[in-house]
Write a structure and sequence with these properties.
InterPro entries: Aminoglycoside_PTrfase, Kinase-like_dom_sf. The protein has 354 residues and is an alpha+beta fold. It contains 13 helices and 10 strands. The protein has 2 domains: 114 residues, Phosphorylase Kinase, domain 1; 229 residues, Aminoglycoside 3'-phosphotransferase, Chain: A, domain 2, CATH 3.90.1200.10. Helices cover 51% and strands 13% of the residues. A 5-stranded antiparallel sheet has the order 1-2-3-5-4, sandwiched between helices. A 3-stranded antiparallel sheet has the order 6-8-9. Strands 7-10 form a two-stranded antiparallel sheet. Bound molecules: adenosine-5'-diphosphate and magnesium ion.
């Protein structure tokens, strides 16, 4: 056991091992017997809930070197410390109550602990896919991101240094989403390459990098943001495109609620802009956000990380509709949303499958 602790090979998904680690490292009392529960679904991390005797609950999170996906995909476990840095800073920059408080981190075992979100809570992606779309959640989703971008822009001098390293964003976002897609889809190659160059050249705000409904828990109708391992100082338009992709892809997939999700996408962007407030780069940001949305929408049907809920037919439809924007795209998000919905609706009429 002592050796486990020293050599960085501790497996927190083994309750007995985690308990002894917490005791030996003095994080909990020497005889304390917490309730330990492995949380499901982690692909790149192990996450374990620890309910302490004093009523406190922590989530311990440990980064895996090899991601649990079909193809070999590796990323340094050091990224958990980027997440820890993210938690500490975001707690100051994001609206009160939207970030889980930090508890501790361990640089030898590459793990961190944060406060657990209280029960009952639900994952926002699960709620959305079940059709539970609520305007107040959408508004908060916009406020949360707008607030992070606004406040990190105001502290640019300091934060551009603290979060200067973009290596995890490069290996976990730029390569698998953008460069891989550019290689797979020749019609979009130049479009994506140009966007990648611009993205690398923009250092405007903190960028969460994984701003997705999957990383939002809803507790008492309040949104809480998780999973900050690719946070860096960069191009805020990426977060807008990455997140809008989820609302628009659901608008495509959930036919009955297509207009509701389109309205939600508009409401989200309005709420974001209100929270961001005045910045000299807003017009350019919106135009780049249109292109990030197109690139992410394509990446989710042709990149290394495909949306799992799409049928083969939906994948083809989304790919073709997005490609129709490559040579000429609107300059604003509302225009993109309207045109995307229209083209998705018309696609089957124009491409008869008999
Ligand atoms: N602080 C927390 N409180 C409650 N549940 C959490 C917390 N952190 C993570 N989880 C649960 O673990 C899941 C995976 O956590 P996440 O940080 O998104 O890791 P991954 O990088 O593996 O996606 C979340 O979707 C959530 O269900
Ligand atoms: Mg996650």
């Amino acid at each position: 056991m002592q050796q486990d602790i020293n050599d960085g090979a501790l497996d927190i998904e083994q309750p007995g091992v985690l308990q002894r680690y917490l005791q030996l490292s003095g994080r909990i009392g020497p005889g304390e017997d917490p309730v330990i529960q492995v949380l499901a679904g982690g692909i790149s991390n192990r996450t374990v809930l620890v309910q302490r005797v004093n009523g406190e609950s922590w989530v311990v999170k440990q980064a895996l070197a090899k991601l649990r996906v079909a193809t070999d995909w590796f990323s340094s476990p050091e990224r958990i410390h980027r997440e820890a840095l993210g938690i500490r800073w975001l707690s100051q920059l994001a609206p009160a109550g939207t970030i889980t408080p930090f508890v501790f981190e361990d640089h030898t075992q590459h793990l961190l602990a944060m406060q657990a979100v209280p029960q009952p809570h639900a994952n926002w992606k699960t709620l959305l896919l079940a059709g539970h779309l609520q305007a107040q959640h959408v508004v908060q989703f916009g406020e949360l991101l707008g607030s992070i971008h606004r406040h990190s822009y105001e502290r640019q001098t300091e934060l551009a240094n603290v979060f200067a390293d973009t290596s995890f964003f490069e290996s976990l976002r730029i390569e698998p989403y953008y460069l891989y897609t550019a290689a797979q889809v020749p019609e979009a190659h130049t479009f994506i390459q140009t966007l990648v160059q611009e993205t690398r050249g923009n250092r405007l705000t903190l960028v969460h990098g994984d701003y997705s409904p999957k990383n939002i828990l809803v507790h008492a109708d309040k949104l809480i943001l998780l999973d900050h391992e690719v946070i860096h100082y960069g191009d805020p338009a990426f977060d807008i495109g990455f997140s809008l992709t989820h609302l628009l892809s659901k608008s495509h997939h959930l036919v009955e609620q297509r207009q509701d999700f389109a309205r939600a996408a508009n409401l989200y962007f309005q709420s974001y802009k209100k929270s961001l407030g005045e910045v000299p780069w807003l017009v350019a940001l919106e135009e780049r956000a249109v292109r990030h949305t197109l690139a992410c929408m394509l990446a989710r049907v042709a990149g290394r990380s495909m949306l799992e809920y799409f049928s083969a037919q939906e994948r083809v439809r989304q790919r073709q509709v997005i490609l129709s924007f490559i040579d000429a795209h609107p300059a604003t998000i509302p225009a993109l949303i309207a045109q995307f919905i229209e083209r998705i609706g018309q696609y089957d009429d124009n491409h008869q499958t008999t």
